Amino acid sequence: MNGIKAQFIDHLSFVVKDLQTTEEFYSKFLGEPIIKNDGLIVFKVGNIRLFFKLSPKEIPNQNYDKDDIGVNHIGLGVRTIEELKKFEEHLSVVGIKHSEFKTGKFGNEYIWFDDPSGIRLEIYHRPLEPRA
Q1: Helix, strand, or coil (residue 82)
Q2: What's the pTM?
Q3: Which of 32, 65, 103, 131 has the fewest beta carbons under 10 Å from its own?
Q4: Is residue 125 domain-resident?
């Protein structure tokens, strides 16, 4: 590749059915959007921005299907089990339906839930890597 490669993920962009509902949903656990205008809202998670834009065309009355070709889910991370438990409690308090605690292929715990457009989200426990 001649030494050329991407250095980081700058943003992920998603098309949604309803911006107001999407903003209300994501604000419950990501805080206020960093950008908001007609047809676009942007949230920041660490150094990565999540863009949500309104579809420029009529969307059929169906939700996103995580098992179709494309993005399966957005994995948001926490570093401790205590943080994961607090996140799960917060989701319950703000009325976001979610899974029970699950254990993934690599032995890490997580919970999942779907946004108003059906996009799957996961809160994944990944402790800090041990330093050499």
Answers
A1: helix
A2: 0.84
A3: 131
A4: yes
d(CA 42, CA 35): 5
Please check whether residues 132 and 83 belong to one and the same domain.
yes
pLDDT digits (tens, 9 = 90+) for 61-77: 667 777 877 788 999 99
Only one residue has tokens 């009325």, namely 95
pLDDT band at residue 59 under the 50/70/90 scheme: low
Please count the structural domains in the chain: 2
Domain range holding 41? 9-56
User: Is 74 in a helix, a strand, or coil?
Assistant: strand
CA dihedral sign of residues 100, 92, 94, 109: negative
For 86-113, the pLDDT digits (tens) are 999 999 999 999 999 999 888 899 999 9
Helices marked H in 31-113: 81-93
**Is residue 76 situated within a structural domain?**
yes
CATH code of 122's domain: 3.10.180.10
Residue 77 and residue 50 share a domain: no
Tokens 């990565």, located at residue: 48
The per-residue DSSP string of 1-21 comes to -TT----S--EEEEEES-HHH
